[in-house]
Amino acid sequence: MQWEVVIGLETHAQLNTVSKIFSGAATAYGAEPNTQACAVDIALPGVLPVMNRAAMEKAVKFGLAIGAKINRKSVFERKNYFYPDLPKGYQTSQLEFPIVAAGGTLQIQVGAREKTVRITRAHLEEDAGKSLHEDFHGMSGIDLNRAGTPLLEIVSEPDIRSAQEAVAYAKALHGLVRYLDICDGNMQEGSFRCDANVSVRPLGVEKLGTRCEIKNLNSFKFMEKAIEFEVRRQIEILEDGGRIAQETRLYDSDRNETRSMRSKEEANDYRYFPDPDLLPLAVSDEYIEQVRAALPELPPAKRERFMAQFGLPAYDAGALTAARELADYFEATVAALGGEAKLVANWLMGDLSAALNRHDLDIGASPVSSVQLAGLLRRIQDGTISGKIAKEVFEAMWRGEGDADAIIEARGLKQISDSGAIEKIIDDIIAANPAQVAEYRSGKEKVFGFFVGQAMKASKGKANPAQLNDLMKRKLAG
After folding, report:
1. Which conformational region is residue 112 in: left (phi greater than 0), alpha (psi within -120 to 50 degrees), or beta?
2. Which of 9, 138, 178, 305 has its CA 20 to 30 A from that of 324?
3. Rg (Cα) of the chain, in Å, rounded?
4. What is the pTM of this model?
5. Do the beta carbons of residue 368 and residue 391 sit within 8 Å?
C-alpha cells in the first residue's frame, strides 16, 4: 500500500521583548534560577496582569507579514493544567479569538519546487517555567525565570507532506521572525521550538489519519529525523493491522526514535475560559496601518529585488534572502567590491557557508567580514591570485591571519601571469611527456587535463589558469 504523510506544525516563537507579557520582570536569558520571576509571574494572591504593548505589536507585525486577518478584538483565556513548573495552575493563552486569525500563508522552497503552506492562526500566550533534573540528589529543581515570557504560537494547516517540507517550512518561518525582529530565533536557548503533528493515510484517501504530536523540536536536523522515524513507525503499525494511538511523543536524539510521553489532550480537557483579570485586546485600524507602514522589506520582495537588481538566478536569490543577516552581508560585500554580484553569491553560498556550517556559526559571527571578503574577491578579479589559491587565502583569513593582501604577500601566493615563465613550464612538461603529446595530437583531447594538472603542479598552483590554458593549447597544437 502507498501512504501519504500529513504534517502540521505548531511553532512557539519567543518574542524578544525586554519584559514579560503580563509583568515588568526581565526576559534576559541565562540569569540565576528564579531571579527573574516576580509576584505576577508566580500568581501570588492579589496581583493583576497588565498586557505588554510591545508583544502585541510584534504579533500584529507577524500577522501582516503573512497576509493574515488581524482580529480587532482578541481574548485571553486560562488554559488549565497542572505541572510542577506552572505556578498558576493555568497558562494564559488565546483560543476562540486569537490576535492573528486565518488567511495567512508562507511560501517555502523545497529544492527547485515552491509550495504554499497555509497558516491557521497565531496567538499570544505566556511560557511556563522549566524543570531541572541535574545534581539534585534524586530530586528535581524548578526555575521560574521563563514563566510569563511572551510567546507567539504559530499553527499551520496540515499542508506539509514530508519531513523535508517540514524543515523547509520551519526554516522559512525562522527566517521571517528574524526579518521582522520579533524573535531572535535562538533554538539552543529555546527561543524557537516546534511541535510536529504527524499522521499517515492511504494515498487517495481524504480522511485524516490519527495524529501523534512530537514535542519541543529545537533543531532542524532533529525535526527531520524525528518525523522520518515517526512516519516509519506509524506505517509499520498500520501495515501490521494495528491502530495508531493519539498521543504526545518525545524525540530521543541518542536513539533516533520517538517515544510515548502521554495521551493527547483535547481542548476541552484544558477547561478554557476567558481570563477575568484581562480585558479583551482591542486593535484599531489606524494602529494596524501604522505597524504595516513600518514593516521591513520581507523575503519574497527582497528575493525579487535581488533577481532584478543583481541579475541573480531564482535559486541564488532565494538562498541569499533566507536570512536577513545573510542578505545584508551579501549587499555589503557587493557594495565594497563595486559589483560582481554573482561572484559574491558563489562565495557566500559556497566557501563561506561551508565554513559557517563546519563551526556551527551564524553569518553574524563570521570571523571574515564583508569588507575582508570583498578584498579577497578583488584579488581574484585583478588576476593577483587564482580561484584555487583564493580558497587557501580564505582559510587563513578565517583563522584570523589578516586581510587577503597581507596573507598573499606573506605566503608569496601572487599568481604567475608572466607568459614567458608559463611557457617555460609548458615546454618542460611537453618535453617530458612525448607519449601523452602523441595521444593528444591523435585526437584524444581528454589528455589535455593531464597537461594542465602537471603545469599547475609545477607552478604550485600559481599559474594564471586562463593564460595557462591558452598557451597550452597553442603549444600542443604545434
Report:
1. alpha
2. 9
3. 29
4. 0.81
5. no
The CA distance from 52 to 55, in Å, is: 6
Which SS3 state, helix, strand or coil, does residue 133 take?
A: coil
Range from 24-33, 267-276, 442-451, 453-462 that averages highest in pLDDT: 24-33
Contact 345, 330 (CB under 8 A): yes
Helices (H), 116-182: 163-179
The total number of residues shown for the chain amounts to 478
Among 439, 435, 438, 436, which residue's Cα sits nearest to residue 453?
Answer: 436
pLDDT tens string 350-393: 999 999 989 888 888 899 999 999 999 998 887 787 788 889 89
C-alpha–C-alpha distance, residues 21 and 35, integer Å: 17
Q: Are 54 and 70 in contact (CB under 8 A)?
A: no
Secondary structure class of 214 (helix, strand, coil): strand
CA–CA dist 47, 278 (Å, integer)? 12
Alpha carbons within 13 A on the beta-carbon side of 169:
32
Half-sphere exposure of 257 (CA within 13 A, CB side): 5
Q: Residues with Cβ < 8 Å from 272, sequence gap 6 or more?
A: 77, 78, 79, 80, 93, 95, 96
Q: Determine the Cα–Cα distance for residues 32 and 51; give it in Å rounded to an integer.
A: 25
